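Repro case for the chain-ordering regression, as requested:
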Amino acid sequence: MKLLNNVGLGVTLMACLMAACEPTGDEPEAVTLNVVSRGSQLVAVENAEGWQVTLDRFDVCVANLEFTQEGEAHASLLKRISDFLIPEAMAHPGHLAGGDVTGTLNGQWLISFLDAEQRLGDATLLEGDYNGVNLSYCVADATVGVTADNPVYGHHAYFSGVAQKGAATIQFTVQIDIVDTPKLWGGVFEMNVMSATTVTLALRPLTVDPFEGDTFFDGLDFGALDNDGDGVVAISAGIPAHNILMKTLMSHDHWSVVATNAQATGKAGI
Amino acid sequence: MNLPVRPFVMAVLSVLMPCTAGAVQSVAEGDESDVAIDLDGYGFDDTATFESEVVSQKLPVTAGETQVTSKQIARRMPLCTDEALTLSSGITVVQHGAEGKGHQLFLRGFDAAHGSDVEVTLDGVSLNEPSNIHGSGYLDLYGIIPETIRKMTVHKGPFLPEQGNFATGGTVAFELGIPEAYANGLLRTEVDTFGRTRVVGVATRDGDASRFAAVDGVVDPGFGPDRDAVRTSALAKYSIPVKSAVRFETLALGQLADFSSPGTMALQDVDDGKKGFYDTYSTRGHGAMRRALLQSSIKGDRALTDWGWQLYGIRRSFRLEDNYTGHLLYPAEGDLRRQQHDAFTVGSQVHMTHRAKTSQPFSVSVGGGWRSDRIAQAEHQINARGRIWQTSLSATATLHHLYALTGLAWSPFSWMTLQPSVRIDGALYEVRDGLADQHGTQRFLNLSPRIATAFPVLEKLQLFVAFGKGFRLPEARPILNARDPEDVNLSRYSGGTAAVSGGYASEAGVQWQPADGLKLKLAGYLTIMQKEMVFDHVSGTNLEKNRSRRAGSELEIAFDPSAWLSTAVDATVVWARFVESGNPIPGVPLFLVNMRTHIGKPRGPHGGFDVRVVGPRSLPHGASTNGYVWGIIRSGWRFERFDVTALAENIFFQRIMAGAYHFASQFDDAESALPKIHYAAARPFTVRLALTIFL
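-- result from build under test --
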């Protein structure tokens, strides 16, 4: 009887072991958050050359947002200080620059940031402490509902506005065509996303870099661009001014994502 | 006992190992049952016979030291040396490729990946490959034929002066020599239910454990798709006395392997029924490696002074094509990647230990060495036909590493032994980037103070306390890419900062032998790493992370009540966390328990089992996986001249996720690009039959 009991115990233990050890895993919870566009930070600026620049149109063809966590590549306070003095790589390889991609919103949109807010869709983010956002630039064409008569058609971005310096006033238009990889890595997105988070995220271009204070139009002397003196400048691919603006548009300090109606966030957006 | 197969065996070995044909012949003509083993220079009784254990079991120097004897290895019958590693407490090995690719190692809370935190030496030569493109410190132990291991010593933690680069988690030292159980050599054939076939031959000269040649070969169709492998290794060692108490020793090793690379499988795809547990994504992954190693040394062992001088060279070629992410990174072309690494290494090292004639035991050791690794490496994106469409890395480097060490061993009292030491390492790297046409050099210096103390307070009770610094020299890559801008795609990852990284470790423990045949050991340890190094299989490189802390304890119980029964249990618990965030270090099991039992005498029936319980593992981004139970049971009969053993592996019929990871992949267009759990499957239930003929 004792032997039978022992055998029974062994069989039971074995069954428990086998049941307990079936391959299982716990994934972090996925949180769905509404994402909109917002142009509130496209404020008038005075660039380094002294031109007061005001935008009246800022259209960018944007695709596939990625939200990233730095994870354990966070710097300690001491390290943050030393990095300020001597910046060094804190990024991951491959597509993971700025952190691991743990949130996405796929799609393509032509976003007119100075028009009304545009809903981009529902992003899915894993719970976690976020530190960055990546996005791709697309060519504006029929796939995003753009017709050939639109000045952004066939380009990645189009913006226009007025630059003033003293008595000089320049009306300018810009068509951006990005060469090489049309992608932005490491835009600003500081937020602790939890399962209870119910905020709306707003994608915002910034005319002023919140960290270094430089502006979107630094390096441009609009007067020098107005060769014929008619007060109208058209910037497009092939001239140095275009390359300056293209690089600025792809600079991570000029893009951010913020929570707009924070209810359960651990950090405030910038 | 004269077996009819003997002439055949000798003929096979003569063909396989022409250089040892004479040795085989001389054994055949010699005494079959009582050949004395010449152990001059090893400090052992030179009248030892087959029935005694050759390897001495001296007292450990630290609480974390474990010695695994050739007898223990022979009982376990490992198919490769990585499996033998698990005979030590606290070590977990994971094969996430196929036979031929280096294993993933876990020790004391370190995910040493392919060797970044575990130093492995073979007869004193470090096998870790600095700056290997598939992870700095990459280890490939397939070249070591398990039947030729005389002793394996595991030093957990960096507490001894000879522990060098990559010994942050510890050091595993292999010493080669033929065990007494088959001192004249053997021929073994093993076949399992998946068709994996292994043949190994070992021949000695005059039954001398230190003069042997061995060869093994494995053909493995794989237990699932994309897991096939072919590999072979050849080893030869020759040791002769050149004068009184001085020996010359030379070792040659050659190995090659071709293997498939199955990649990993997303657990969700299995749960959804899209894939079977042992399926793959058919990514056309493949690997190949070649290695040749030649080592010569001269050793002196006089009454008061031991000394040795060693010279070695290693030629190695490694090529790996794998795709862990489908077409996530490159939607059009796919993420199939080829890594190539070629290295030529030369090195030399000396050591001397002098014992003073004093009333209190006192000795001083000094040593030093130089190693130069000349490497060429490249990383390409390739299409399904193997054509390169993008090159992300093409570099050459010369890495010089110099070290010097000194230490004392002093027993001021009968109840205390002190072993303070200091080690200084210097390195000079010269790197040339073939893509950017850049060239750079950088020097590094590292000082490692260490101390190990033992307190043999009673005859059968010892206490241990140790403290030491371990280190890793940096990879070559960051020298030219030290300041990557933070808003660019770092497809050419810099490999962290160009600086020596390391950390401090401490441990305390006690060993107690309350009765003959019973030994208990308990140890606790704390390790703080300045920078964590985590291997990322997606990018195939080591990622530098923040400061980390590991605290844990180990319990070992060995019970050998009689000559025919031995059993051992060990348990390791580790708390491994990043300091800043408090998050767990990915991949490290919370606990590990091993149970091993062997029953049987040197002749007649024998058997035993090993059971391993691996605890749950935390993964990045807050994910986790459960643990698993693995076991092997064996039963056989040892006759005078041959042995038949049957082994059953994975006896609990578990579907085991041996390696678990959390990253994004996209093998299906509709798939989410968010990270998810991926795993590398362990071998399912397998029965293996091994036939051994003792020469």
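Ordering looks correct now. The two ends of chain A are 73 Å apart (CA to CA).
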